[in-house]
Amino acid sequence: MPASILVLNGPNLNLLGTRQPDVYGTTTLADVEAICRAAAARAGREVAFVQSNHEGALIDAVHAARGAHGAIVVNAGAFTHTSIALMDALSSVDLPVAEVHLSNIHRREAFRHTSYVSLVAVGMIAGFGAQGYALAIDALDAHLAAAGR
Ligand code: CA2
Q1: Domain residues of the chain, as ranges?
Q2: Is the C-beta atom of 101 inside 6 A of ligand 1?
Q3: Which residue has better confidence, 118 or 20?
Q4: What's the mean pLDDT in 62-70?
Q5: CB 82 within 8 A of CB 112
Q6: Cα 149 to averaged position of ligand 1 atoms, centre (Å)
């Protein structure tokens, strides 16, 4: 059985498609989940899709991924730029991480240019909207396959 992938979404991403369409587009989080499920199905993998507005709940989900999933796609929202605790959790589970951002964080305010998640990620995809999640799943699929997982 090929390793499954956890897709983790941070604060306010539940609002996707309902506010600020100029920045984040009109795609909803349910649409993002469908994109992830389709990408995973093409790769012959399962996905678990999680969103929380709470830092501790995200950390708990990362801890629970150990032994349950082979890799993590994470859009940590604003916790990307603030949470050493989430970075430590991602580092502790020793699973390959792909960081995703809907927007190109490097074209935005300076405070979005720092990512703690990047310090523990294999790679990062930003600026391609919801399609970035599918790109991340493809990348992790290849990464896992190269490791025989
Ligand atoms: O571009 C991304 O994916 C971000 O992770 C989104 C975060 C932001 O804090 C990061 O700097 C970049 C914000 C997610 C909030 O999403 C909303 C969606 C609709 C309406 C309001 C917020």
Answers
A1: 5-146
A2: yes
A3: 118
A4: 98
A5: no
A6: 31
Q: Where is pLDDT greater, at 1 or 130?
A: 130
Q: Is the CB of 42 under 6 A from ligand 1?
A: no
Whether the model clears a pTM of 0.70, i.e. scores above it, the answer is yes
Topology (CATH) of 5-146: Rossmann fold (3.40.50)
Among 14, 58, 80, the mutation site with the greatest number of ligand 1 atoms within 8 A of its Cβ is: 80
Q: Calculate the alpha carbon distances from 115 to 35, 38, 42, 47, 133 in Å.
A: 24, 28, 30, 24, 17
* Residue 24 reports pLDDT greater than 90: no
Residue 89 near residue 63 (C-beta atoms within 8 A): yes
